[in-house]
Task: structure prediction
Amino acid sequence: MKKVYARPKSLRKVPMHYCPGCGHSVIHKLIAELLDEMKLRGKSICVPPAGCAVLAYNYLDIDMVEAPHGRATAVATGLKRVRPKNLVFSYQGDGDLAAIGTAEALHAANRGENITVIFVNNAVYGMTGGQMAPTTLPGQKTTTSPAGRNSRVEGPPIKVCEMLSGLENTAYLERVAVNTPANIRKTKKAIQKAFEIQQKNIGFTLVEVLSPCPTNWRMDPLDSCKWIDEVMSKTFPLGIVKEVKC
Amino acid sequence: MPWFARKQRLRCIVTKQLMYGTHAVGEAAIRAGCTCYFGYPITPQNELPEYMSARLAQIKNGVFIQAESELAAINMVLGASVAGARAMTSSSSPGISLKQEGISFLAGSELPAVIVNIVRGGPGLGNIAPAQSDYFQATRGGGHGDYRTVVFAPASVQEMADMTYTAFDVADTYRTPVMLMGDGMLGQIMEPVTLPKAKKKLSEKKYILTGARGRPARLIKSLILDTKEMEDHNWKLMRKYQRIALKETRFEGFQMENADMVVIAYGTAARIAKGAIKRLHQENKNIKVGLIRPVTLWPFPVKAVQDAAKQAKDFFVFEMSSGQMVEDVRLALEGSRPIHFYGRPGGVVPSPAELARNIARYYYQSKRRRKR
Result:
């Protein structure tokens, strides 16, 4: 019999701590599959964020260094400059990248650092209990916006891909989602493309992944997936935002 | 090519050269094998990033980034350090406050790095004059958590070079961040320097991240959720700090033979104190005043101070601050000797004559007191 599906070697054989319906486990698996398929496990270094996914180092079987909240792109910059031949990627949430670490992300992108950012956007601060994030949708209720986000007061959600697309040295920016099998396949392709571009030293690459957080959205997993399609992707349209032809 | 970088090309001919303190730090760092510098402009240390930008461009694998902030700079240092390079950053007081987050992470993750603080007057934006206002911040950890930072306090341009060179070795030996604490004066003056020899080969590091080819994956982190494990890690760090205190404590004694009164001062203040003591000895050969100059501020030379107390009756602490190191002196002496403090905060640099007057006043007062 032919084996058609197996646990990727780059993914450790341990149960994940993520909530039921969380997108992190899917994204971890996609990364692990790609590291196997592209034979990159031996040269990859990942910088996980502060937040739920800080424990990514328990799951991905590759070299990892933890960064302070928001500084993953700065740490990745230092790493990549010293080891230009390694594949260096950071894995960051919306609070990490679009609030406390905006300056670091923006300037790494502007310098065109040859790193890849896997930017997981779930519209809330997950680990700390579902507070309002820079990507929380207008009207969305969170533990710190109980009446719903008011764009006039709290500002509208920040569209990271669009914000970075104006910078000359960004090579590849795409927004994907992990709410349906088809979207999961697209996510994998997007990350693959980002890794390929990094290996060609073309510039900064970022894949924004819309990811469900049923626990903090107060929804069941299926409704969460539906919500990404029906609500979230209206504010954050899926697709390639920028791709530099090479 | 800037003049200072051009000059280094001629270095085989000259052994001693006139250099700025900041340039001496930069050149010594490069000779110690530092290939990465990350910084953000702030006065009075700008000559150092300027120097590094020119010099690192001449070096194979040299990395210079003018970061978007001090936060980014120290975290780039963390990244370069975990990748195995000797990395450094520099700043001045307000910038060092921002770097504390990264310094705490370096300490917690046990990563080496060299951080240069060219101290200015504070708090807040303060001013850009030479001061010693950051002693607490430097020696008490500065950032959050249970840790220590090794702090070197040079007092001349020659020492700026020598201690930078040593700082990289200490950082690597103990896998810990090391700080070099100068001030605006040490950074800006020019003095003759004999530079240390360039290191040819550095020892291999077994913990660094290179990609897990043919070996188990490595993980560098400071997050330890289990309380018992965290406690073990804290004790492990503390044992390391005890080892450092045992082996790396440095100080200089000056005119300490038969000293009745001991002046304690570091850095620029120690230089002024030396001048003051020389002056006092010229005026009166029988005056018995000596100097202990802590060369490492942490670990503080506790034993040297305690040993001095066996014969000295009085202590005189002089700082260019409103009194910070004086607390370490009090801790070392545990109330066994009277301690007089003279401080000039705010970036005021007193003359040796001014200090000599104050030392003499206290010296003769306490002599009279003892006679009574």
Notes: Chain B touches chain A at residues 35-36, 38, 61, 63, 65, 67-69, 71-73, 75-85, 87, 101-102, 105, 109, 209-214, 217-223 (CB under 8 Å). The first strand of chain B starts at residue 16 and ends at 20. The mean pLDDT of chain B is 95. The CA atoms of residues 320 and 344 of chain B lie 5 Å apart.
